Amino acid sequence: MIALIDYGAGNLASVRKALRACGAEVFEPAGADGLVLASAIVLPGVGHFGATAALDNAWRSAIRAHIEAGMPFLGICLGMQWLFEGSDEAPGTPGLGCLPGQVVRLPDRTETGDRLKVPHAGWNTARAATGPGHEQGIPGLVDGAYYYFTHAYAAPVTSAAAAITEYGVPFASAVRRANICGVQFHPEKSGTAGLAVLRAFIEGARS
Amino acid sequence: MTPSRDGFARRLIACLDVRAGRVVKGVKFEGLRDAGDPAALAARYDAEGIDELVVLDVTATIEDRLALSRTVAAVAANIFIPLAVGGGIRSVDDAARVIDAGADKVGVNTAALADAALISGIAARFGSQAVVVAIDARRDNGGYAVCSHAGRTPAGREAVAWAREAESRGAGEILLTSIDADGTLQGFDCALTAAVSDAVGIPVIASGGAGSAAHFVEVFTTGRADAALAATIFHDDTCRVRAVKDTLRRHGLPVRL
């Protein structure tokens, strides 16, 4: 069963609907203790990084313990950003910190001076990050496919980047470290391309 | 690697104007006629490659809108692309109801003109990405006058200034409709679109007047729109989503195919 964590940050219903459409059994634990019933964790979220403050110490230590025990984890949008050390959007709210780096605001100009609309709202391509330093990809993610984004802050391209998208600057549109997966885009809103990512995560959690 | 936005697609959005559970379409906001079942049309557009859907309750400010949540839930049930819902959203609680029913974004118009704090209120609870400020504007003495109540009532504001204020209060996107162009099939009002798009740092969705694929090229180039919305030409099969996207791509505009 997939534990879908509700911390009051938006898109829970959409993610639940998409996971179920992909064949997953989903439950929403009332508290961190409920994670003992889970075979995988999905942390959704959209909006302001400050909302992740609702993930209190009980949640943080339980999620960290399950991740360290090897449980498959998927963070979506804010849920992915939370894996990093923190975000410039809410300097007083620490992230989980299992990936090094800080989430920063997207630029409002390209390098050549053209204006960029922020938030980055719409469909953009994700290029799989491969080669030395990039350990593993995101199952189900198709190199060059379009995914739906809506965010003003983005994660840096580090060795954890599994996919890179450009919007003024390159940023990590997906991250992977062992059993930890994260996507900046919304797989629940990215049509068949997004459902393929969710389906592959669900399959991976079963095996 | 050149930093760019070359992979960033121009968005095509289909609008379902809904009244009493059915899709309707009129000309210049009047003369409504039936255009089908909302959930069936939504599924069709999704299959054809539409990038986003808008459900607009066109009678919401003057009639009962209890049916809206059911319509939204039916539309949302089988689609996995962004869905915005507007029409008669007067409070944060109204916004919460349509978001609970499956909307990703809510559009506010008349009520935000009456009290702009509604924009910041919804943004504070659901995030700016969930707030679309819909602006209906008509040409007026060389400028653009904002109208409320489905285009019927002058709001006493200028479109560019109102768009800027909406942005400063936390709007995530502007849905900009030309009342003059709406339903005419004669093309978007590119001057209006460019004026607003240049004035704000958030995405602008152009609406009203789409009659051919060439009109979309115009509004993405001359009009500097970030997204373009149409209803009539998609409902009537005048123009298929895929045909519009093929035309855009031939003109060097990235699209999701």
CATH fold descriptor of chain B: TIM Barrel
Cα end-to-end separation of chain B: 24 Å
Query: Spans of chain B with pLDDT under 50 lasting ≥5 residues?
Result: none
The total of beta strands of chain B comes to 12
Number of helices, counting only DSSP H or I runs of 4 residues or more of chain A: 4
Total domain units of chain B:
1
Q: How many individual β-strands of chain A?
A: 13
Short overview:
The complex is a heterodimer of chains A (207) and B (257). Chain A has 207 residues and is of the alpha/beta class. Helices cover 20% and strands 27% of the residues of chain A.
Question: What's the arrangement of secondary structure elements?
Answer:
The complex is a heterodimer of chains A (207) and B (257).
Chain A: E1 2-4, H1 12-21, E2 26-27, E3 40-43, H2 57-68, E4 73-76, H3 78-81, E5 86-87, E6 102-105, E7 120-125, E8 127-128, E9 146-151, E10 153-154, E11 161-167, E12 169-177, E13 180-183, H4 191-206
Chain B: E1 11-19, E2 22-27, E3 30-36, H1 38-48, E4 52-57, H2 67-76, E5 83-86, H3 92-100, E6 105-108, H4 110-114, H5 117-126, E7 131-140, E8 143-148, E9 153-158, H6 159-168, E10 173-178, H7 190-199, E11 204-207, H8 213-221, E12 227-230, H9 232-235, H10 241-250
Parallel strand pairs in B: 1-4, 1-12, 4-5, 5-6, 6-7, 7-10, 10-11, 11-12
Antiparallel strand pairs in B: 1-2, 2-3, 7-8, 8-9
How would you characterize the overall build of this protein?
The complex is a heterodimer of chains A (about 210) and B (about 260). Chain A has about 210 residues and is of the alpha/beta class. Chain A contains four helices and 13 strands. Chain A has helices at about 10-20, 55-70, 80, 190-205; strands at about 1-5, 25, 40-45, 75, 85, 100-105, 120-125, 125-130, 145-150, 155, 160-165, 170-175, 180-185. Chain A has an eight-stranded mixed beta sheet with strand order 2-1-3-4-13-12-11-8. Chain A has a three-stranded mixed beta sheet with strand order 5-6-10, with no helix packed on it. The mean pLDDT of chain A is about 95. With about 260 residues, chain B is α/β, with parallel strands linked by helices. Chain B has a single domain, classed as Alpha-Beta Barrel (TIM Barrel). Helix content of chain B is about 35%, strand content about 30%. Chain B has helices at about 40-50, 65-75, 90-100, 110-115, 115-125, 160-170, 190-200, 215-220, 230-235, 240-250; strands at about 10-20, 20-25, 30-35, 50-55, 85, 105-110, 130-140, 145-150, 155-160, 175-180, 205, 225-230. In chain B, helix 1 (about 40-50) runs parallel beside helix 2, helix 6 (about 160-170) packs parallel to helix 7 (about 190-200) and helix 8 (about 215-220) crosses helix 10. The model of chain B has no long low-confidence stretch (mean pLDDT about 90). Classes of the chains: A alpha/beta (about 210), B alpha/beta (about 260). At the A-B interface, helix 1, strand 7, strand 9, strand 11 and helix 4 of A face loops of B.
